[in-house]
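REQUEST ID: PR-0412
SUBMITTED BY: lab tech R.K.
PRIORITY: routine
TASK: structure prediction, single protein chain
INPUT:
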Amino acid sequence: MKKMYLRIILLSCLGIFLANCEDGENGLPGADATTDGTDGTDGTDGVDGIDGDGFDELAQYGSIMVSLEGSIGEDKTPFTYEEEFKFTDTNGYNVGDENSFYTYEEEEDSEEEVPEGEETYTTFIEFESERYLTNPGSYSSHIELFLGVYTTSDGTFGYDYISLDFENLNILTDALEYFEMDDSFDDDDEMANLQIQDYSFDEETQTLTFSFSFNIAPDNNDTGNDLAVSIEASLVLFKEVEEIDELLD
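STATUS: complete
OUTPUT:
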C-alpha cells in the first residue's frame, strides 16, 4: 500500500511541475549556406537535324548580290536593302530561260542580231540569269538579269544591252513600314550613271562575273523617289547542247 501511495504522490507532483512549465524562447535562425550544391550531370545532346533536301543543289550556281538605297513615299522614309539571291530554279524549261548563255558567230547571225553600229562583230554572247531569295517558286522574291556582250574583228569589246527585273521584293524600313517592289530597268533610257565593271567570262567553267551600278529617277521606280542600285554577279551558266539528235546517232 505504501508503494502505491508513493507512486500516486510522485505522479501528482510531476503533473503539477509540468503544468507550471512555460515555452522557451525561439532559437536564432541558422546561417545561410555559403557553398552551392554540386551541379547535376548534363543531359545527352540531341540528334543533328537533316539538311534541307535539294538546297545545296539549288545554291551551287552562283548568286546575285543586290543593294538598294532610297526612300519611300511623300515623307521620304529612308531605307537600305541588301540581299543575296543565290537559289537557281533547275526544273524543266527554267534552265534555258533563267540560267544560260548563247554565243553567236558573225556568219551565223542575221542583221537583227548585230549590235547597232557594230556590223563587224566576231562574237556576240547573250546571258540570261534568274536567282531567287529563297526556295524557287512563283511567289518567292527573285531577280532577272540580262546582258549582251560583243567583240569586233579589230578586238573591240563592248556591251550591247543590260536589263534588270525585280519581282516580289519586300522592302522594310526602320519605321516599321514596308512596300513591295516589282520593277524593270534597262539601259535604253532608265539607267542613269550606268557603270559596268570587272566583267569576266570563263568559257571553261562557264562562269560570268561582273558588277554594275546606276540611278533611277523618281518617275521610273516604285518608290516614287530617287533610287540607287548596285549589283554584283557571280554566275555559273548552262549551255544548251545543240544538234542533240546527231550526237545520239
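NOTES: The CA atoms of residues 105 and 113 lie 10 Å apart.
REVIEWED BY: pending
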